[in-house]
Amino acid sequence: QHLGVLLLAQDDAGGGGDLADGQDAGGNLVQQRLEQVVGGTRDERDVHIGSQLTELEPFEQAYLKVADLTRRLRSEGHTIQRLDLGGGLGIPYERSNSAPPLPTDYGALIKRTVGDLGCEVEIEPGRLISGNAGILVAQVIYLKNGEGRDFLILDAAMNDLVRPSMYGAHHDIVPVAEPPVAAPTQEFDVVGPVCETGDTFAKGRDLPLVAEGDLVAFRSAGAYGAVMASEYNTRPLIPEVLVNGDQFAVIRARPSFDEILNRDTIPEWL
Hints:
CATH superfamily of the largest domain: Alanine racemase
CATH architecture of the largest domain: Alpha-Beta Barrel
Largest sheet: 6 strands, mixed
Number of helices: 6
Strand content: 15-25%
Helix content: 10-25%
CATH class of the largest domain: Alpha Beta
Radius of gyration: 24 Å
Structural class: alpha/beta
């Protein structure tokens, strides 16, 4: 029998919280809550301390707590056979970001902290695997000079890559055709064509000069990109193309408007 227990850290734990504080994730409060849970065989422990972490120290603190808790529960007669250590390993979304830990270093950390427990271990490094493996390519459809700011309007929109609109996430935006060295730049608000003020990819972004019809690429769009896309404003999902060296294939085609509309049916009683 599995007994599900969800324990949330303080609301600033998006970056892992302060695991040294006994009242946060993995601390005394967690152990006290677990002691209040009765019945069932707790054969698995799961932990997820946050997202977009680029240092190993928070993981080490958390996994040491998990190891201590596992030993304690085993001493009380519980069979702990499996550990899900969650995800959270980040990627560099900006060129100025530091490189994330190497997978070998992360693996050594896991072995060092929980390796002696003899448990099956599961990890969830999704963003680390797919984040920098995907880009979003868009075309410049219009350059608009406004009062106090200029706009770079693309054919891609918030429905194609929602992270910037949803929570202000940064994605490097670069011309597909590499500009000359020391090419002039201009500050743009980069937006899409959807009739929403939130259809904004970047504000005040300094970019090489581009022209209508040019292609730009959003880097690091392989995670939380296509899977969070929608057909808002009846905008068909964009095609997905798999590239391997000089080979490529469309692995998800763009649906037609008829295909979108034909998904809906009219009940017989209308």
